[in-house]
Please model this.
Amino acid sequence: MSLIICPGIHEPTLTESFLAELKVKNQQKPGNILIFPIQDYPAYSSGHILHFMCENHSLSSPIAMISFSAGVVGAIGAAWGWQLLGGKVTAFIALDGWGVPLTGSFPIHRLSHDYFTHWSSALLGSGEDSFYAAPSVEHLELWRQPQTVVGYSIDKSEQKRRTTAAQFLTMLLDRYKT
Model:
């Protein structure tokens, strides 16, 4: 299984910081993490993301996706396209995908930088377990330093648990064995 990272519109160093803070690179085999090159293509382009996935990953191997901000727009369409081509999406994780409808026949999780974004995004598809920062943080902080973003994880039964965004993401990655 591979992890597909779909950043937003920001400096690529923020994505490196995100991965380092999650320690994802240490847990994955080389080549099992694919970072969509936002310096070459629009972060919000489903077609470009899907093409990148097809060129760099086999349809026979499942994927999990983590996307941020404008990258959520492109990533959800690419996830649908991947499935239409016969691929399997084991999990879709959206960080601050405000205003993006999230539905699919795969597990979907949302993380938000504040309660308002969490609440209003859930109107367009809440998915499964989710997280919101409390107190709220700046939008880019959720991506840059998830280990410092404290808030609440909420499960399907609406039970809240105090945690960090990084701990919540690590729990999801462990659940889906990425």
Remarks:
- The first helix runs from residue 12 to 22.
- Residues 2-175 form a domain with the Rossmann fold fold (CATH 3.40.50.1820).
- The chain has seven helices and eight strands.
